[in-house]
Amino acid sequence: MEELARLAGVTVRTLRFYRERKLISPPRREGRIAWYDDHHLARLRTITALLERGHTLNGIAELAEAFDHGRDVGELLGMGAPTEETPVRLTPEELADHFAGEVTPENLAAAMDLGYLGTDGEEIVHISRRLLDVSSALVREGIPLAEVLRAGREVRTHTEAMADLFAELILRHAPEEAVHRLRPLARSVVDAELSLAMDRRLHKQG
């Protein structure tokens, strides 16, 4: 315990307090010896970083529980890594920096339920660099993360329907392997239609 506290830059008393609050998991015991590992050290450094960013211990405890009971990276990636999206590995404090003040247990649970976030030990994995960048940009513009996630859920419903439409269209006239080859065409149609729809929406508003 003394060695862990020294490496983490905290006092033994603080470490005991964190253990009592269940902010870190119990050590592995061999007889009367308690063994801590790199996961304990990473969690302590995360707690320190989140405290420096203005999070309270109660908030950190809720976040820690959400992380510990969240979907792991295997569940997040499902049958395999995305073919066209780049997953991003983040520490909890890096995630907090992307969404300043918006990383609540509720938002974290919603993002995990959507399949945007998973956990891998002390790291968080976001399923898509593009989605991470867009959602953090929207939050910086003043849109609450909870609203961004609600919109993401609605978009998911519509895009699932569009994917089914294009796949069925292609499979009626081409072999199954053509679906992968022709998917950029489907994406271009959706992008163009969304652009035109935004034009119509802005014209009505004007």
UniProtKB/TrEMBL annotation:
Residues 1-66 form the HTH merR-type domain. Pfam families: MerR_1. Keywords: DNA-binding. Transmembrane segments: none annotated. InterPro entries: DNA-bd_dom_put_sf, MerR-type_HTH_dom, MerR_fam. This is MerR family transcriptional regulator.
